[in-house]
Amino acid sequence: MNVAILVGGKGGRIGKDKGMLMLCGKTFTEILLEKFQDCNIVLVCRDEYQAEEYSKFGETVVDEIKNFSPLAGIYSALKYFKDYTLIVAVDMPLVKRELAEFLFKTCIEEKADAVVPTWSDGKVEPLLACYSYDSMEKIWSCIKMGERRVYKSIERMSAIYYPIDKLRMFDKDLLSFMNVNTEEDYKKILKVVGCL
Predict the structure, then answer these.
(1) What is the pLDDT of residue 94?
(2) Of 68 and 174, more confident
(3) Edge-to-edge strand order for the sheet containing 60-62?
(4) Residue 11 reports pLDDT greater than 70
């Protein structure tokens, strides 16, 4: 399985590099690397400085389109692997391996441009999703137009919007989709894992 961990976000709202946040003695980055240790992994960084910092963890690649959005990270990951790629945001450390594998497998089996978990209200989780190499074209056309929203590029794809509720068979409480944008989010994750 090809796994791209997006570490590039600046963590503006929490004021820290989210990949370096600690959870029970390990960084979010280390937790995800351990979870996917037997996979092909690349860490997608926002710039050369960040790539240098993260190179101690493993293989890195730098966003080709600087200061854009996670869309640039997905584009860079697909360009790196040139194949189906599971995208995981570094601020989602509780992702379940079985759930991730299911998304990856479904994308390949259905020959979809993407398999994107979707909530019942229509909101999508594009940063824990699988994308095919073919989807790069649609992503690039959005980047060229200056469209930063990931879901807008997915709308152009032949994507499968997979109901999140059906993913409870792999992750009963859907902890995989807990992410950290604020100090409050961080405390919630620490509490769930029992490190608070």
Answers:
(1) 97
(2) 174
(3) 60-62, 40-45, 2-6, 85-89, 128-131, 114-118, 159-163
(4) no
Whole-angstrom Cα distance, residue 84 to residue 67?
25
Q: What is the CA radius of gyration of the chain?
A: 16
Q: Which residue is associated with the tokens 């697909």?
A: 78
CATH number, domain of 112, equals 3.90.550.10
Q: How many CB atoms are located within 10 Å of the residue 148 CB?
A: 15
Q: Around Cβ 42, how many Cβ atoms within 10 Å?
A: 19
Q: List the domain range (segments joined by +) for residue 68.
A: 2-193
- Total number of domains in the chain: 1
Q: Which amino acid is at 119?
A: W
Which residues make beta-bridge pairs with 159? 114
Residue 114 CA to residue 132 CA, distance in Å, equals 6
Sign of the C-alpha dihedral, residues 20, 27, 97, 182? negative
φ, ψ at 26 (rounded to 5°): -130, 150
Structure tokens at 8: 């590039």
The per-residue pLDDT for 196 is 60
Q: What are phi and psi of 92, to 5 degrees?
A: -120, 65
Bridge partners of 45?
A: 62
- Between CA 182 and CA 184 the distance in angstroms is 5
